[in-house]
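quick one: D-glutamic acid bound model?
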Amino acid sequence: MNGGDPRAIGVFDSGLGGLTVGRAIMDRLPDESLIYFGDTARVPYGPKSPDTVRRYSREIGQFLLGEGVKAIVVACNTATAHGLAALRAELPIPVLGVIEPGARAAVAAAPSGRIGVVGTAGTIRSGAYERAIRELSPEAKIVSQACPLFVPLVEEGWTTHEAARIVAREYLTPLQEEGVDALVLGCTHYPHLKTVIREALGSGVRLVDSAVETADELARVLDQRGLRAASGAEARHRFIASDDPRQFLRLGARFLGHPIENVEIRTLG
Ligand code: DGL
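yep, here:
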């Protein structure tokens, strides 16, 4: 491995939710350094237009490239839906999104081909998950549902609150009636609502979360391109936000699974 490539992996999201993907990467690739950028000044991306989200994604991509990263993971589903193709076309390093890995995991989890997809309004409107699933399984029966109230519920910490239960039932009853066998949690925040989602759908439905699958794909890409850090390398994890670090420090630990000691601030745009 020629001593390995010590450059960091860039990971970004509209805010904190992508830390769940960051965590999966840290678990899967403990020798790799990470630079996580959360666009907390401009979150949420879900309701914004494709052009706006694409512009934000390109700004962040250039910023991370300037920080010297060797690959970028777009941990945000909405930014993947609207910005991945542009980033891949423009950047000289590998760029991975969360939608292809999520689609692969969904097809594997639902041999019947009845797959539900939930995400932000932007992700669902883009049809990106449907396209990715159909590429793997042309006969799949896909039922999609935008769940715009899920993100604020998670940000508020109301993940098992009665309000979350009511909202989940409202959004998910049609999917349950369609008899989906697997549900893609196509948004960074939704894995935190697994309890109420399970209650609304019943325990027979498999919940698919793309974080682990994305980390596996990253490992494959790094290996293929000879970009892996040396085994036993000292990994550094930097966290950067575009606005007030207090919320990042407070909520970030919940998403990451352990405390965050320092958040740098960097304004873009
Ligand atoms: N990170 C976004 C996603 O995965 C959810 C939050 C937002 O709307 O910005 O789609």
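Residues 243 and 259 are 19 Å apart (CA to CA).
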